[in-house]
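Deliverable D5.2: sample structural annotation.
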Amino acid sequence: MQSSDQMNILETAERIVQEGPICDHCMGRQFAKLSTGLSNDQRGRSVKLSLVMDADRRSKEDNDDGFLKELAPSSQYARNVLKMKGKDEKCWVCLGLFEQLDEWAERAVAAIGDLEYSSFLVGTLVSGLLAENEEILWAESGTVHAEQLKSELNREVGKRIAAKTGKDVDLVQPDIVVTLDLTEGDVTLQIRSVYLFGRYRKLVRGIPQTRWPCRNCRGRGCEKCNFTGKQYPESVDELIREPVIQAAACKDTKFHGAGREDIDAKMLGTGRPFVVEAVAPAHRSFNVAEVERQINEGAAGKVEIEGLSFVSKDVIETIKTSKADKVYNLKVTFSDPVPEEILTSAIGQLVGAQINQRTPQRVSHRRADLVRKRQVHGMELIDLHDDHVMITVHCEGGLYVKELISGDEGRTVPSLTDLINIQATVLELDVVDVKL
């Protein structure tokens, strides 16, 4: 006697074959979640064999010669159960897709070509017809243990790619994602970026951190930008990117900084942490020390970097979300002379104070109009001149130090201007430490 579970499987299988010719893979997929230690095609062959054997058992028990005739090779039922042959009897569910596994694997390997990688993953874009066929089968057969077509295709093509290339499948962080587009018959690649961490110093003023499209033409190119499409001729990003592009043979780079300094500010001292992302690289391993040397040589006198090293993607989030304290050197002038003791007293009052800053006027066009609360950890008058003073400020990340000095017409409270009752202005600003 057969168990009720066995009977349920066979009953489901009978309903499946009534829908039309079905290959071993697609039959096996309908019971994939029932653990048997078999591949889907092996499972499918076993189910089909069980169907034929069960039909033979029933015919003998019933002594029904008519039923045996229904199982004759010429009958539709037999053709649906037994292995299909001939062009007109390919699987109606996958349309013969599982007969093309080697072809898809070869296309994938050809698409990868000479790219450097150690791991990959296969994904599939299923056509509307295949998706519809699968939904019809599930609805008519009532199967509840099925695996999706694309899941098996990903696995089976992945096995073949691994065998051809010697590379590993990585389900979490593959170097390359191979996508099989069943509608177009194409293979596309998504190549994981390579990430390099370092610190940069910007030695001159007037250079932005990242590429700025021309405000007039928005990057299209016009007379105002000399048809470059850029607001500024160069940036820290661009001074770093070319040696990275050459080393990684990548399409482009993306620059991720731990905050940014003003265009008219220098970045000195220990430098600002950054990650440069090599997008769609053909090479994943290269001499970063040589890349660092080339960057420093090419950007000499403008930008210099140090500590370049390979890192993972999550370092970007770390440097972007960290509230790193900053240390600034400020060159400050006043609208009227200020006695040293008054200036020193005002500086002392700012140390440890909570600074309430409404978004400065100079950045209000690109920042939300909020009131931010920040703190000054330390502030010191370090040099006095006839026409200016030098002040060092150690503060919480996100504090606008120019407005801490000027007051921004009352939008920053307290400010140095407010405390001395004389207008103070920052002429020059240097960032000397980013305490990440």
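Annotation notes: The longest strand covers residues 266-279. The domain at 194-321 is CATH 3.30.70.2510 (Alpha-Beta Plaits).
The annotation will be released with the project's public dataset once the embargo ends.
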